[in-house]
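Human:
Take a look at this sequence-structure pair and walk me through the C-alpha cells.
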Amino acid sequence: MSRCCPKCGELVTNGGMELFSNHIPTGWTTTTPDKICKVDFPYLVHSGNYSVAIKDDATLSQIVTDVVPKCCYEFSLFAKFFGYPFGMTATVTFLTPCCEIVGGTIHAQSFSIIDYAFSNLRILTIPAPCCTTAARIDIYAEPYVVTAKNANIAKSEINHPTNIENEGNSENLLIPPILQFPKYESLQQVNNNYYPALIVDDVSFALQ
C-alpha cells in the first residue's frame, strides 16, 4: 500500500444486506426487481439477520464514491448457490469522465444443486485510473441451463433430506426448496416450483 492510499474503512453501503426496501437491499439498484429477494432463513444467511437472493440472469449493482485514484481496492463477498448449477460474475468497474475500466472480476461456478457453505470470494483490483470519479460493483447471477440430469438431481434433493456434516456431527437437514419471487415471505414455504438463486452476503470494497 503506497503513502497515497491510507486505509479509510468500508466504502460499500449496506454490504451486510441488513436493510431492505421492497425486497431490494438499501443502497443497491437493479433493473430486474422481480428477481431480487430478501432472505431470512438462517441456513442461507452468512451473518446478521438477512442476505439477498439474486435469481438467474439478474444483476445487483452499487455505485461507490470516494474512490482514490492510483490506489488498489480489495473487493470481497460471501456467496452460495441454491438451486440448479449455474455461475456468478462479480465485477468492479472504475468510472471516469471518458470511459469505464474494469478493475477486477470474480468468477464462480457451482456444479452441485446446493452449496452447503458460503464461499469467501475476493480479489485485489488494479490501481484506479488517475481520473476515476467512482466505482460500480455489479453482481450478476448467470443464466442456468436445465438438463435432464440437473432436473433429476434437483428432484432427488427436494424430495429427500440432505445429509451434511455440521461441526463433525452428521445430521439430516431438509433444504427448503423454494425461493419465491417477488412475493417472498419465508424460505420455509413449500411450493411445486424450484427456483435457483445466488445467495450473497457481506459485500466489501475497501482500500488495500
